[in-house]
Amino acid sequence: MKEPLKVIFDTIKVTVLFTICTAAFYFGLKWLDHNYESYHKYDEPSGRAVKVYEPIDSNKKMDWSGRLIEFFRNGE
Question: How far apart are the C-alpha atoms of 12 and 28, rounded to whole Å?
Fold first, then answer.
């Protein structure tokens, strides 16, 4: 009679421990996310840096085959 009760009690202990550890991990991640939310990652290029952009030409319309060829040509 003692053996099944011990197994049930051990199962409950493991479940409670798992729940506490999971909650601590979750709230730890939320705390980290909150702290790094306003962290500025990127700065404007300075010095001789070149801005990279591709102007959109309204006359240049690609059909699906042209876009597919560009996809394979650029390797993206």
Answer: 24
50 vs 69: CA distance, rounded Å? 27
- CA 42 to chain CA centroid, Å, is 17
Number of alpha carbons in the 13 Å side-chain half-sphere of residue 32 = 6
pTM for this predicted structure: 0.50
CA dist., res. 20 & res. 28, Å (int): 12
Is 62:70 a contact under the CB 8 Å cutoff? yes
List pLDDT tens digits, range 45-71.
777 877 776 655 655 666 778 778 878
Q: Where are the domains of the chain?
A: 1-36
